[in-house]
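Q&A log
Question type: sequence-to-structure
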Amino acid sequence: MKVVRHIIAVIVGYATFVVSALLLFKFSGIKPHDDPTVGVMVLTVAVGLVFSFLGGVLAQLISKAGNLWPNYILAVILAGFATFSLLQSSGNHYTQIAAIFLFAPASLVGGWVLIRRKTEP
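Response status: OK
Response body:
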């Protein structure tokens, strides 16, 4: 049962990030592979950071692991899919680069913050 909970935790963490990105691009009209303006890039990165952090927190809450293993898996999946997309897509790649170097680490920070808050006296 513990393994199933960890798998669900990682799926929910990843879905939190992906759904937020899909909603951002759909409702704002931003095309993720077009050349962005500075404002679009800042908005995209800010939303990505918030929701990847939140995904890391949710992964930790659901897994109840007390260690960062679910967050490591989540970060590897985020960076892995972003790397695959980077290699397979054309156009501007700022979203994939941000996912690899900012969003994946932010999901680790989300888990770390939650663990830290639980262990403080």
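Response note: The chain is about 80% helix and 0% strand.
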